[in-house]
Design goal:
The protein is an alpha+beta fold. Helix content is 34%, strand content 21%. Helix 11 runs antiparallel to helix 12 and helix 12 runs parallel beside helix 13. The protein binds flavin-adenine dinucleotide.
Length: 492
């Protein structure tokens, strides 16, 4: 197996987009399942922990090791099978979403639920239950995962198919690899919004959902099966600017209402506040004077519905005072790419700002129930006023889920921003929301998880972690402090 040591070979693995800085002594690059298990054994013999690394595009430091070794999945990058009839792709976990999409597109198939960052690996996206710009229309990648092969640090590789292993209430009891697995899942109630904060736990849940979103703490996803869709007949995108923020918010409300009624079915509905547009103006001079912007993506079934839908969106935009002449409606692949790149540029610019100022990310990932969104939005504005730290607020407004990103330019501002973020999370949770809707907890969101779940509930998660990884070798410091793993009953 390929193993590298030496700082120059490791540097690439010691950060993600959170700007958390890591430390490790070596990286394993397994090429197959046997080598994955071999790397576990080697770490065990060396008495070191290890962290799983895929595309390192995560935003919470999950793939960044603080000590020990890295297992990089980049060589597990093969498509195993594409079943055209059933519309299923079976692949190893280390393939990028971009490469996976290219391969399935050859068969007129697509993973439309794909998260925004195409350089993420499919295993990384599943491990964080990522969603992205099409979450509005498609939900998170979780919904499309129908099979997982997971390597456990105890030496087994378990195969989990959706709908096959179901809990009785909160208890699992099943056989795999000649072993009986019996354990309880945490007792908390998940919020009624998309959430990626800690382990998935529900009465009578499917085992596959426990591993999806477990952020590299329970086992290594070595391969997966995903349900695909046919590529839509056509798609058009809109990038619409509004003179006043309230016009954009009214537009969003109307679109959401029409979606609820089933009159339109946009795949995406994304928001940019004035500060986001000001930052983007550094790259895109065409942005007009406006207080807010909205990006949407509309799929079309045939030529007739194309014309009708286009007219419907134009009415909606004009009815809400959108600046139609200065906005963009894109319906060719080239134009659509330009509009999508615009949407994607903002998080990239934020990450660049943080890197240049040597600051760790301080950003919200809060989703609240739709009927509480206005209250949450007012609270963002209140905190922005109080904090007087540069910020941008943007993201998945269709799902009442915004990323309020502080842009601290020094350590003092960063410390203050974290306190304000705590207040935002408290407010989000009090409104029935989650502290993390899609990015996970990783290393930097642990204080906020404690707002959502009490100590007992977090300990219940550590019990599950220790059931699958008894020596606590895997993904240390992700989701829980490693001291918590030691104090809740077992050594590591
Ligand atoms: C510009 C930009 C925009 C983004 N926009 C979005 C967005 O809109 N929505 C969204 O959800 N995310 C978004 N992200 C975040 C990111 O793309 C996702 O979190 C992504 O799914 C992580 O995938 P990765 O391969 O980079 O994983 P990594 O960052 O390498 O790892 C993420 C976590 O998963 C664990 N892990 C990795 N591989 C495995 C495996 N095979 N088995 C078990 N555990 C594993 C790691 O240990 C770590 O804890 C964005 C990122 C960027 C840079």
């Amino acid at each position: 197996m390929i193993v590298h040591d030496g700082l120059e070979n490791l540097l690439n693995y010691l950060e993600d987009t959170s700007n958390v800085k890591g430390n490790a002594s070596l990286v394993y690059l397994p090429q197959d399942n046997r080598e994955v298990l071999e790397s576990f054994k080697d770490c065990f013999n060396k008495k070191i922990s290890f962290t799983l690394s895929s595309g390192h595009t995560g935003t919470t430091g999950g793939c960044v090791p603080l000590e020990g070794a890295i297992i990089s999945l980049e060589n597990l990058n093969k498509i195993i099978n594409i079943d055209q009839k059933e519309q299923i792709v079976h692949s190893q976990s280390g393939i990028t979403l971009e490469d996976l999409e290219k391969e399935v597109n050859k068969f007129n198939l697509t993973l439309r639920a794909s998260p925004t960052e195409s350089l993420a690996f499919v295993g990384g996206a599943i491990a964080t239950s990522a969603s992205g710009v099409r979450g509005f229309g498609y939900g998170s990648i979780r919904k499309y995962v129908i099979g997982l092969e997971v390597a456990l640090t105890t030496g087994e590789i378990i195969n989990i198919k959706r709908d096959e292993i179901i809990a009785k209430g909160r208890c699992f009891d099943f056989e795999q690899e000649g072993r009986n697995f019996k354990f309880s899942i945490p007792s908390y109630q998940l919020p009624n919004v998309k959430s990626q904060a800690g382990y998935y736990a529900k009465d009578n849940m499917d085992l596959i959902d426990l591993f999806i979103g477990s952020e590299g703490t329970l086992g290594v996803i070595v391969s997966c099966e995903l349900k695909l869709q046919k590529i839509p007949f056509n798609i058009f995108d809109g990038l619409i600017f509004f003179p006043q923020e309230i016009d954009a918010l009214n537009f969003v409300e109307e679109v959401k209402e029409l979606k609820r009624k089933g009159e339109i079915k946009p795949a995406s509905l994304e928001f940019f506040d004035k500060n986001s547009l000001e930052l983007l103006k550094n790259e895109y001079s065409f942005i007009p004077d406006s207080e807010a912007g909205v990006y949407f993506e509309q799929e079309v079934e045939d030529e007739t519905s194309f014309e009708l839908l286009l007219l419907r969106w134009q009415e909606l935009i004009e009815g809400n005072k959108g600046l139609l002449d200065e906005s963009i409606i894109a319906d060719t692949p080239e134009q659509r790419k330009r509009v999508f790149d615009f949407r994607h540029k903002l998080p990239q610019m934020i990450n660049e700002f943080l890197r240049n100022n040597n600051q760790v990310k301080v950003a919200s990932d809060i989703a609240v129930p739709d009927d509480k969104f206005n209250q949450m939005y007012d609270f963002y504005k209140k905190i922005a006023k109080e904090a007087r730290i540069r910020y941008v607020n943007f993201g998945h407004i269709g799902e009442s889920h915004l990323h309020f990103n502080f842009l601290p330019s020094n350590d003092q501002e960063n410390r203050e921003a974290k306190e304000y973020l705590k207040k935002l999370c408290q407010r989000g949770v009090s409104l029935g929301g989650t502290v993390s809707a899609e990015h996970g907890i990783g290393k930097i969101k642990k204080p906020y998880l404690k707002i959502m779940y009490n100590e007992t509930e977090i300990k219940e998660m550590t019990t599950v972690k220790k059931y699958f990884d008894p020596l606590c070798l895997l993904g240390l410091d992700n989701i829980f402090d490693k001291e918590m793993l030691a104090s809740s009953g077992r050594n590591y």
